[in-house]
User: Fold this.
Amino acid sequence: MHGRLNDAAQLGGGRRRHLRKNLSALGFIRLRFAGLRGRAQALRLSTPAAIVMLLATIVLMAVTTTPPAAAARQAHPAQPMEADAPREAGKPIMAIVSIKTQQVTFYDADGWIYRAPVSTGTTGRETPAGVFAVLEKNKDHHSSLYDDAWMPNMLRITWNGLALHGGPLPGYAASHGCVRMPYDFAEKVFDKVPMGMRVLISPSEVEPVEFSSSSLFMPNRETIAAMPAKAVALAREADEATKAAAIAKTALGSAKRGAAAALATVRKLEYFKKHADGELADAEKVLAAARTDAAKADERTTQNAVAAAEAIAKTTEAKRIEADKAANDAKLALEPVSVYISRATQKLYVRRDTHMRAPDGGEMYDTTIELPVTIKDPDKPIGTHIFTVVARTDAALRWTEVTIDNGDDAKDALDRITLPQEILDRIAPTATPRSSIIISDEPMSSETTYRTEFVVVLNDQPQGGFANRARSPGMRFARRDGFGFNRLGDWFFGDSRPPRGQSYGRRQGWGW
Assistant:
């Protein structure tokens, strides 16, 4: 409720200020008109031509005496308009926010489908440009830190508090880093947007363009057709391997317990030998009998049994791990895959949504693949390019490309990359729509965790709305401040700037 009142107050305040300025300008024009009217009476206007001349002068003065603030507003370019494509919309694949034009556009496989004005971060709280994805959806989100501010139809893109959501749009950048969309527009797209949808925030106005290259993933139709049955078989094998490993572990435990009991008996007899003064002779006889050749042979047998059980347990556990990995790969093979190639780290990273809930919120991503990658001319900027599969055709895949940071053009950037053979063998044969390859000069942001898709921010652009938020620590759940509130949601009110003299960025060890 407080958030709604705050939004209403902001809108009301803006309208009142606009009205006061208009009345001020009108009053100024009336004064000038009164002076002209007196002058006209003094001239005793009597002809229609003179009246026309007077009216023209009044109009001219009204234009030339517009208050400076109003003149500045008139100089602004036309504001983006909310619009839908003149065709049936498909499932959204990505959204692109242009900071320059203050506009968001949603795209499906065939082009743009929804478009609307937005309000991004203001000076010092700028919305960071970069690569993001939808991590969480909340229909009726309220800020847990700032006056319970209402952020309806929230699409979270970082766990430190950046999101797209419904909010007031004054016609210019005004948020604390989030991307505000019109209330009705945010409600319209909320249910249509899938989890994991790519969100690109660009300093300029960009759009996806069709792209093709032999360097991109080339799926294999037979492999894709066989994958469901293969996944079932591998899951069965993984289950059997897990049972075998459990049995071997139990047997090893029994063998170790038997060996421990035998050793305990010997040690007990040695204790009696040492401490039984009155029965020393009897203890020595019993101990000697325990250490006969037969007893020693039995001890060796016990030790051999333990060693054999350990070997079996080790082998079955290795088979279990291998079977689980194969079953997991088969299960995820037909999920969209994201590949990130960083010139900064000279590494390639792979992310796939497992659709499993993380214990501390969000969905868990498979992050098991991280490999070195060869980049030609590694000291030369490459830019930031996003290649996305938008559809599968009979022959191959349809790709689009978006560049949000200058360097090489997209084709030259891709030609500089040599993909590891493991990636081509494990991922390319089953690549699906919404899969992507991202190439960038930047390292992954420290906000990229096991429960996020890739988070990448452009270091040559302002990051105020990102740097002023608390980085998710430890288990990557929202830290609590001194007031006991989670630092999540759009930091719409208040001030959380770093201490004076402190800055953030790659050089300060934040990993950006």
